[in-house]
Amino acid sequence: MKIKNIAIFCAGLDHRTGGYEVNSRMLFLALQNIEHIKVDLFKSTGSTATNEHVQRIPFRKFLRNQSKKRFGNDTTVLEERAFTLLTLIFYFNKIRKYDFIYTRNPQTALVLNKIKRFFRYKLIYTNGVRLDPIHTVNIADHVHFNNIEFYNEFIEKQPLKAERGYCSLIPNFQFNHQPTPNKSKTVLKEKYGIKTQNTIACIGSISKFPKRTDYIVNECKKLDDSWTLVLVGNGDQNIIAYAREVLKERFVHLHFHSNDQSINEVYQLADLTVFASLTDAFGNVIIESMKNGIVPLCHTRQLNQWILGSNEYLTDLTKEGALIKYIEEKGLNWIRNQEHYLVDRYQNNFTWDALANKYLALFE
Description:
The chain is α/β, with parallel strands linked by helices. It has helices spanning 19-32, 60-71, 77-90, 92-95, 106-115, 148-157, 159-163, 185-192, 213-221, 237-247, 263-269, 284-291, 302-308, 322-330, 332-335, 339-349, 352-361, and strands at residues 4-9, 37-43, 52-54, 100-103, 122-127, 142-145, 167-169, 198-203, 227-232, 251-254, 272-275, 296-299, 314-315. Strands 3-2-1-4-5-6-7 form a 7-stranded parallel sheet, with helices on both faces. It has a 6-stranded parallel sheet with strand order 10-9-8-11-12-13, with helices on both faces.
């Protein structure tokens, strides 16, 4: 079988820990184990390693400031464009040999699509951002959606493109690593200073938008004194300070990155996780929670129902008191005994083993 040469572009890898970065790294690791594929990874920070190439960006701070002035809150626009152009210049001879280039970064895709006529590569873009035409039409040779809401809306608006195989729908995946050895909840609670019987975990960046962490804090404030909220991640210091003020000893904040192995201990001690975003494009923490057999309480929307395969773990998280109502209606015994369904759902739908053929089809 002919060897396929593939490049993955991800400007934020090794200094950001969002979905673009985490999923780009996992795809790189997965493709490395495919016999007929040779894959390289391009990033703007971190260290060089086997098949990993670093293209530094000069004047990064200046580019971020200019992006903020020109594009509002998105400070990475010019940074990503600069990274892509510099990579094309300094790795020109290498780029000429690739059969496929894959990216999740919209600005990278826009640049690569404009100049691809000078190269041989086919451009694959994973759209997890938004549905305006600039991010869906003529941005790549193939658009991969990981969000059923975006996918359905696109094929409704662009039926001819959908019929011609321009797009596909494949969820994010995780590796089916051996779980870390279980420790007793008593030991873990002592380690993290949790003094209550029950624990809610909220994992990911801490923000009003899109994560709505402030809503989760206010909902936990309504729970009785048997509950502790554990926020895992970095972000809005005002929300962290507010949670500490209103929840007092019933609040723990942990600075973990998404790839930190200690995160597994948080899942081991949690009774419930809460994912309150109304707009996130996927939600890796949902499948992480499923993987660990912990109920991820999510807002009622088509995307979350598609991931979970059930409405049992959904409620209207725009309403005040939704969290306490859910716990009271379902009961703690039911919540703590969903492991079999959740792990089975994860194994069959969100592991590399389950999705490998679909991802490999992107590079046909």
